TrEMBL record:
Matches recorded under PANTHER family: FAD-DEPENDENT PYRIDINE NUCLEOTIDE-DISULPHIDE OXIDOREDUCTASE, PTHR43755
A Pfam family: Pyr_redox_2
Species this chain originates from: Melghirimyces algeriensis
Recorded superkingdom: Bacteria
Name of this protein: Sulfide:quinone oxidoreductase
Residue stretches making up the FAD/NAD(P)-binding domain: 4-291
Gene Ontology terms for molecular function: oxidoreductase activity
């Protein structure tokens, strides 16, 4: 009897786990004792961390996009459709076009999604860079910006949590290189006591911002944007005026999670911190941004999780135990300008400690970005 492994999501997490499983279960797939299916609502795979570079003309859209059939192993069955409901009792995934997929093992790689509508006025009065369309729109706005007040305002939670810091430091360097840094006032508005949620990174970022004359507005919880007055307003009534507004809206989990009543109020999935199982389910696993784990929603998180989960699932399909633990490992490069970067590495037990920025780390990040297309195939 064929064992069906169904993966919902065609992003970094979904593609990587599918490719690792396909390589590890090639014999079983050829013998038709195992079938791996990926459900994706897009025909393309997008390298989302590249959105950061679009506003600065450092990346073009075509560099960040590949057709799904160039990214997914040929031994993986791909269904281009949207998952709408998960029935954990019947072990079925219902699709928008009417198909119902049975599963023996289900992997939820459903990602995180910006909720622009959570901030009234943002669509009309501000910008972001967490989608291709919004990154291109921001690029156009920056092409016409020649100095003035810039506000970068952050909502929580959001994926790629280090990206707002990166964008702010890259923008400061960009304004300097464009020749209008002295005419540019930059404010970074964050809803916590410092510019980042982890103390060690917040302390480092605060020093960097102070050295670059970037103002930090703390405890700024976004309420709405007033595009007529060019101000962004906090829940306590504070107003920040702007000529260019960049907002990182809060993110939530996928609609299929909400419709299936599997997650919390923001549709994050309760996930075992070591074995990546969905709480209360023995044969459903969660990977990437979709989890509620206390770690970054970042590409490297998906990478390290995929290595562990693929190992465990292959063992389970071979009739063995799948109990290798994930330790919360994350590695993040951090651009500190247009030609320098640092990095942080951490896990559940060890907090991040940024190293001094350098051109060499920037080159390493540039190389890592290019390696994504090999990385996502599970080869490295």
């Amino acid at each position: 009897m064929t064992k069906n492994v169904v993966i919902i999501g065609g992003g970094t997490a979904g593609c990587m786990i599918a490719n690792l499983l396909a390589r590890g279960l090639k014999t079983e797939i050829n013998q038709r004792t195992v079938q791996i299916t990926v459900v994706s609502d897009q025909e393309i795979h997008i390298y989302q961390p590249g959105f950061l570079y679009i506003p600065f003309h450092l990346k073009q859209p075509e560099e960040l996009i590949r057709p799904m059939d160039q990214v997914i192993n040929t031994h993986v069955h791909v269904i281009l459709d949207r998952a709408t409901q998960i029935d954990t009792h019947k072990q079925n995934v219902h699709l928008e076009k009417g198909e119902s997929l049975p599963y023996d093992y289900l992997i939820l790689a459903t990602g995180s999604h910006p909720k622009v509508e959570e901030i009234p006025g943002l669509q009309e009065g501000g910008h972001m860079f967490y989608t291709m369309e919004s990154a291109l729109r921001l690029r156009d706005a920056m092409d016409h910006f020649h100095g003035g007040k810039v506000v970068v305002a952050v909502g929580l939670p959001h994926k790629c949590p280090i990206a707002p810091l990166e964008f702010t430091m890259m923008l400061e360097d960009w304004a300097r290189q464009q020749g209008f840094r002295k005419q540019t006032e930059i404010t970074y508005a964050y809803p916590l006591a410092g510019p980042y949620g982890t103390a060690s990174v917040a302390e480092w970022a605060e020093k960097e911002f102070n050295n670059r004359n970037i103002h930090i507005e703390t405890f700024f919880m976004i309420d709405h944007v007033n595009p007529e007055e060019n101000v962004i307003v906090s829940v306590d009534g504070r107003k920040l005026s702007y000529d260019l507004l960049v907002v990182i809206p809060p993110h939530q989990g996928a609609n299929v999670v909400r419709e299936s009543k599997l997650g919390d109020k923001e549709a994050w999935l309760p996930t075992h911190r070591h074995h990546l199982r969905l709480d209360g389910q023995e044969n459903i696993f969660v990977i990437g941004d979709a989890t509620n784990l206390p770690i970054s929603k970042a590409g490297s998180t998906a990478h390290f999780e995929a290595e562990i989960l693929s190992h465990n699932l292959i063992n389970l399909l071979h009739g063995k135990k799948g109990e290798k633990p994930y330790n919360g490992k994350v590695f993040c490069f951090i651009e500190t300008g247009l030609n320098q970067a640092t990095y942080i590495s951490f896990d559940y037990e060890n907090p991040p400690k940024p190293v001094p920025p350098s051109k060499w780390v920037h080159f390493a990040k540039s190389g890592y970005n290019e390696m994504h297309w090999v990385n996502v195939k599970g080869i490295l």
